Amino acid sequence: MRWSGWGDPGAAHGLPGGVKLLLAAVLGRIPAARPAPDLAEVTVTTPPLDDADVAALASVVGAAHVDVGREARMLHAGGKSTPDLLRRRQAEQVAPGVVVLPGSEDEVAAVLAVAGERSLAVVPFGGGTAVTGGLEPDAGAHRGVVSLDLRRLAGLVTLDTTAQEATLWAGTTAPAAESALGEQGFELGHFPQSFEFATLGGFAAMRSSGQSSAGYGRFDAMVTGLRVVTPTGLLDLGRAPGSAAGPDLVRWFLGSEGAFGVITQVRVRVHPTPEVRLFDAWTFGDFVAGADALRRVAQLGTGPTVLRLSDEDETAVSLAQVGNLGKALARGCSAVVLHEGPDGLAQARREATTRVLREAGGRPAAEKLAVSWDHGRFKAPYLRDALLDNGVFCETLETATTWSNLHALKTAVTGALADGLAKEGAKSRVLCHVSHVYPTGASLYFTVIAGLGVDPLVPWERVKHRVNDAITAAGATISHHHGVGADHAPWLEQEIGEVGLRMLRAVKAELDPAGIMNPGALLGPTTPPRPAGQGG
Ligand SMILES: Cc1cc2nc3c(=O)[nH]c(=O)nc-3n(C[C@H](O)[C@H](O)[C@H](O)COP(=O)(O)OP(=O)(O)OC[C@H]3O[C@@H](n4cnc5c(N)ncnc54)[C@H](O)[C@@H]3O)c2cc1C
């Protein structure tokens, strides 16, 4: 992973010609970009932890697994949102005081104990792909920050092929999990766009949702058990496929964002590797017609694995990206549908979905559009780097609501983005797709591109604030799958209420009385540390 951008440096690329033409037409003249500096040019304003702290941590994990080097600290300096990447282009930056790599659950517990004794904040670090500020090196009331990188806690622990349930270490990356399961004929089926780097612990901590969610559900729906090390003890949760033994404590840690403790193992349901994968592409006259068609499929439950609908603007940009500028200028919306599983069952599901989509006014399109979406689906983050390098601001955000409220929400968010960016003097284009569907509603995923000037960070923060207000006022969720982090924390109370916030604070106070666990995330930087046992 690049410290100042996304992914494998070898996979980085420039802007495709079609995109350049479209950008010039939409955004006009773009000022020259501020290039990402070399690491050596950056001043890291937060010092490394002192020798005594480092020695205490090294006594737990071994000196080879404690790193105060500049590169390691900058690789753990934050997540991969566009504001994170813009901060990585600045001359002065903050970073954690040390990176620590525990090799066992006992070492995790011992690191938390040392951190508590020495008043050090601990930020759990999985794949580093967070996009809502949950990896900010925020020390809170403490002396410094330990980035707790879980990469050594990786691999398959057990696979029960009868129950179709697997336990994996939390630091296992998604590709490593699929590879280990695939060797035994199974698959997890969680494919977020951050698939290449994100970890199972990160998915659980953030309540992630992948592109196959129509078929296999969100990540939190896949989780059947967790092991979590907290500053006050270990929890081993989830012992039966269904239980009425009080409130479900597993759910308390899904979305806990490292603020309650460290997830060390994740138990998930898995399924046999699909025998066939059947791709279809569809077009609809407009977004309203397309969304109605997706609603009918989700409510009837015909069983696609992937079901996504791009709005008119996103459809045009996707076509321009593959060089089809002529078609890109025509109006209409495209949908991608995938059915998979055992051959006969997948075919039967595909036929049922096809009937519904046709009845809803859909027209079948070339299958290659869906196949090319599948081939290119992890490449968009590389394109964002190319856009930033060319001075084009590009960011994504997401939310969810009921089908009844979907179009009002889309209008509200698109309006807040367009108006906010116009107030900042920027030309922009807002793209949107339905990314995840449920019988009762769907998630909307927005991509914004704008000519926001040479220093877009502060103007974008103002725009994002307006958008978050618009989402909340529209009655939608502040996040369907990117989580709360530090960025959405000020909007959490409006979503869960004052009592809900007190419940979260009470649990944190019980599990993390000194407030060392990820002080900036979930509950926000204002959360005061509380003595154990004193909620409220
Ligand atoms: C280009 C891009 C595309 C993305 N696409 C999607 C998408 O399609 N769907 C989606 O849901 N998300 C997406 N994301 C967001 C991100 O990938 C998810 O939030 C993911 O779950 C983070 O996993 P991670 O392992 O990288 O966690 P990190 O980024 O390392 O950490 C995320 C948060 O979880 C905490 N944490 C991590 N591991 C643990 C642990 N073991 N125990 C306790 N706390 C922990 C961290 O402290 C932090 O607060 C995308 C991000 C990017 C940059």
TrEMBL record:
- Return the InterPro entries for the record: Alkyl-DHAP_Synthase, FAD-bd_oxidored_4_C, FAD-bd_PCMH, FAD-bd_PCMH-like_sf, FAD-bd_PCMH_sub2, FAD-linked_Oxase-like_C, Oxid_FAD_bind_N, Vanillyl_alc_oxidase_C-sub2
Extract the Pfam families matched here. Answer: FAD-oxidase_C, FAD_binding_4
Q: PROSITE patterns per the record?
A: FAD_PCMH
Please list the residue ranges annotated as the FAD-binding PCMH-type domain.
91-273
Q: Transmembrane helix as a keyword?
A: no
Coiled coil stretches, renumbered = none
Task: Determine if Flavoprotein is one of this entry's keywords.
Answer: yes
Its keywords, alphabetically, are: FAD, Flavoprotein
From what superkingdom does this record's organism come?
Bacteria
Q: Which family does it belong to?
A: Belongs to the FAD-binding oxidoreductase/transferase type 4 family.
Q: What is this protein called?
A: FAD-binding oxidoreductase
